[in-house]
UniProtKB/TrEMBL annotation:
Identification of the protein by name: DUF3369 domain-containing protein
Domain called Response regulatory: residue spans: 29-153
Residues modified to 4-aspartylphosphate: D84
Keywords linked to the UniProt accession: Phosphoprotein
Organism annotation: Leeia aquatica
All copies of domain HD-GYP, residue ranges: 318-528
Superkingdom per UniProt: Bacteria
Length: 529
């Protein structure tokens, strides 16, 4: 520090036990507003080499009240304004004070009035009537007094900024707790956690990493698994044995061993334990050492999201159980067909892909709710559950069905709809069972009304069934059946394409064709047979 020792108490308030590496790249911004260029030069010279809490001072200049207002309107990182009173008018500085507080609603920036004409604006009146933090005659601002004034103002600004960040951070914690519960994918959830941490602290960290440790297995080493990452760490995603920076991994291991947050010189490691015996550590390098208040905010946030990690795990386990149950039901319905399990999973995959493309195209946005999008693929697995009641000699007949056999075969749609309808009545709202009921009962309806069992037409057919119909027919054409050999990709696509507007919803077919184009870009889709 370049100033005399008598005022060192002004800056000796670092967090105990914290060792800093040097001045941060983010300086304290100080705006000099004065119409005398020499004042700008003298101020810079007097404060040369000064830093506060390892952050340098950056001076920017304005030479009138109007110019000062433009600067403060365009940036929100000014900590202190050293403001002259008399500039373009006798009260230009006082006018600027009011504009800062009232027009810009900036209550954080500290304002120190400096005047060469004390009688022009009496000190007591100015202090009483204007929201300023100090009032000095230029003649009394020696280098030492200027140093004292600047450091005291920066400390006051820092305290107010911490309070404001605390208020905003707590609000973001509450918002995050609600928003994160809506994310059902572990990676999506963890990525949301990383973004919220950057938001709470008010900076974008250069890379944030979330790793998990599965429940311990006796005698077996359990490596860290990267579940989410940003910026510099993104290359570690989907890596079986990720090579994390040595200093970062050391802090992560310390957090795991001590089961506690770690705040070190270069890195922060936040420890999150869950009831399902999984442990998570969020690691990042902040652009400046975190103050105690910021550390406390992170502790509160981690406490709030620990339960969310547990709930997410339980949700995903439930979802897996539901999927397994649905696949088992589909297999039970057609256990005699060795391809059934693969067929229904392929239908599920294509259904999900078509739904995603419909969203991208902007079609049926009101119907493509979050519940619909998340569950319609799983629901499509049960599209043929009604075949459980179809006799073998009809179900596996190698040739065409006669009229009576066709009637029996077609009963599987209404049978499936009835079975799933009873189940869906036990669940409130939209569920995979209610969507499965729609699909099973209506996936043989045609857009032009020529289908079965109710001869529904157009959008009277549930959207879920219109999507599953395309997925089901396409997969059936592409694979061997007792009554047919597999078709070529070109022939199957052309069949679907040719029946847009008659058998199939044209918008669903458009989305299907885009899926095919994305998967097979060399396939010619221009022919419409």
């Amino acid at each position: 520090m370049s100033m005399p020792d008598e005022d060192d108490w002004l800056i000796e308030d670092e967090e105990p036990g914290t060792t800093l590496l040097g001045p941060s790249s983010l300086p304290w911004v100080i705006l000099i507003v004065d119409d005398e260029p020499d004042v700008h030069s003298v101020t810079r010279l007097a404060m040369q080499g000064v830093s506060y809490k390892r952050r340098n001072l950056q001076f920017i200049s304005a030479y009138s009240g109007a110019e000062g207002f433009e600067v403060l309107s365009s940036r929100d990182d000014v900590a202190l304004v050293l403001l002259d009173v008399v500039m373009e008018t006798d009260d230009a500085g006082l006018r600027l004070v009011r504009r800062i507080r009232e027009e810009l609603q900036n209550a954080l920036v500290r304002i120190v009035l400096r005047t060469g004409q004390p009688g022009q604006a009496p000190e007591q009146q100015v202090i009483t009537d204007y929201d300023i933090n100090d009032y000095k005659a230029k003649t009394e601002l020696t280098s030492q007094k200027l140093f004292t004034t600047v450091i005291a103002s920066l400390r006051a600004y820092e305290s107010l900024l911490s309070i404001e960040r605390s208020r905003q951070g707590l609000g973001k914690i509450l918002d995050a707790s609600a928003n994160l519960y809506q994310k059902h994918s572990l990676r999506e959830f963890a990525s949301g956690v990383l973004r919220q941490i950057s938001g709470i602290l008010g900076f974008g960290a250069d890379g944030v990493l979330c790793v998990s440790v599965p429940p311990p297995i006796p005698g077996k080493h359990q490596p860290l698994s990267v579940v989410a990452a940003t910026e510099a760490f993104e290359t570690l995603l989907d890596t079986p044995d990720p090579h994390i920076r040595e200093d970062a991994e050391a802090l992560i291991q310390t957090a795991l061993q001590q089961q506690a947050h770690q705040f070190a010189e270069d890195w922060v490691a936040l420890y999150i334990a869950t009831e399902n015996q999984r442990e998570y550590v969020i690691c990042f390098a902040p652009p400046w050492p975190l103050a105690m208040l910021e550390q406390q905010l992170l502790r509160v946030f981690c406490d709030r999201i620990s339960a969310a990690f547990d709930n997410l795990y339980l949700y995903e386990q439930l979802k897996r159980a539901q999927t397994a149950t649905v696949v088992a039901l589909a297999d039970l319905a057609e256990f005699r067909d060795t391809d059934t399990g693969e067929h229904v999973l392929r239908v599920q995959g294509m259904t999900d892909a078509i739904v995603a493309e419909l969203q991208a195209l902007g079609y049926y946005s009101e119907q493509l709710t979050l519940a619909f999008v998340e569950q319609v693929g799983m629901a499509s697995i049960l599209h043929d559950v009604g075949k459980v009641g179809t006799p073998d000699h009809i179900l596996f007949k190698p040739g065409k069905h006669d009229e009576q056999e066709r009637g029996v075969m077609q009963q599987h749609a209404s049978t499936g709809g009835s079975i799933l309808g009873k189940a869906s009545d036990m669940v409130d709202g939209v569920s995979y069972l209610s969507l499965a009921c729609e699909i099973a009962g209506n996936h043989h309806e045609h857009w032009d009304g020529s289908g079965y069992p109710q001869h529904l037409q157009g959008e009277a057919i549930p959207l879920s069934a219109r999507i599953a119909a395309v997925s089901d027919v396409f997969d059936a054409l592409m694979h061997k059946r007792p009554y047919k050999e597999p078709w070529t990709l070109e022939a199957a696509v052309q069949y679907i394409q040719a029946r847009a507007g008659s058998q199939f919803d044209p918008k669903v077919v458009e989305a299907f064709l885009q899926v095919i184009h994305d998967r097979f870009p060399d396939l010619d889709l221009s022919v419409n047979c």
